[in-house]
Amino acid sequence: MAIEIIRDPLWNNIRLDPLSFELIDTPAFQRLRYVRQLGLAFLVYPGATHSRFEHALGTYHLARRTLSLFEEHEDLYGDNVRTKIERCLRVTAAEADAAGRERELYRERFDEALAGLDLLLVPTLAFVAPPADADELAIRAGVVRFTLPFNVLGVPALALPCGAAEDGLPASLQLVGRRGDDGLVLAAGIALASPD
Predict the structure, then answer these.
(1) Which structural domains are found in the chain, ordered by start?
(2) What gap in Å lies between CA 137 and CA 132, rounded to an integer?
(3) Residue 194 CB-density burial (10 A; 0-12 exposed, 13-18 middle, 19+ buried)
(4) What are the pLDDT tens digits along the chain (196 aa)?
(5) 3-state secondary structure 46-76
(6) Do the Cβ atoms of 131 and 139 come closer than 8 Å?
(7) pTM (2 decimals)?
């Protein structure tokens, strides 16, 4: 099996197996070269030119590295992290393909539901902030209940504080927009957070 190597300024050599190289060579992945990971930061810091392409390569590299470390040192991982990695490793290629198809259908339904609307306003959490010592695995489903749908869709979502809830604990709401409407979501968030 041939291995392709990409030189990276942060990780040195990133080794790609043939399947990964084939994916990276697709037009969709190549377009990531033109999406800035750091927004307009390069206007202030000229060296801040990191793209989504570079970010995705680094993420791929770290995921492979994490997997090899996990195989060697599984017993050193905490339950909250080990459980997530084990769940990911159980996903088959067929399940991943089926999930991709379901996500496309979900995106279509989301786009239909948002027809005629600019933004969606929804809670960020299903409950107030949990105690610092809460069992993360026990509360995870509730923590991501209102954020996971938008993460899966890849749409912009911005959590904003909206005052106090029970026992004076902070509460927040999310502004959600359509794919590509990041600027609208951020502009609305700035307007809502403005004291005027």
Answers:
(1) 1-90 (1.10.3210.10), 111-196 (no CATH)
(2) 13
(3) exposed
(4) 567 888 888 888 998 888 888 888 898 889 888 888 777 777 888 887 888 899 899 999 998 888 889 989 999 988 888 888 898 889 998 999 999 999 999 999 999 999 999 999 999 988 888 888 888 888 888 889 999 999 999 899 999 988 888 888 888 899 999 988 988 999 999 998 877 6
(5) CCCCCEHHHHHHHHHHHHHHHHHHHHHHHHH
(6) no
(7) 0.66
Residues found in the chain: 196
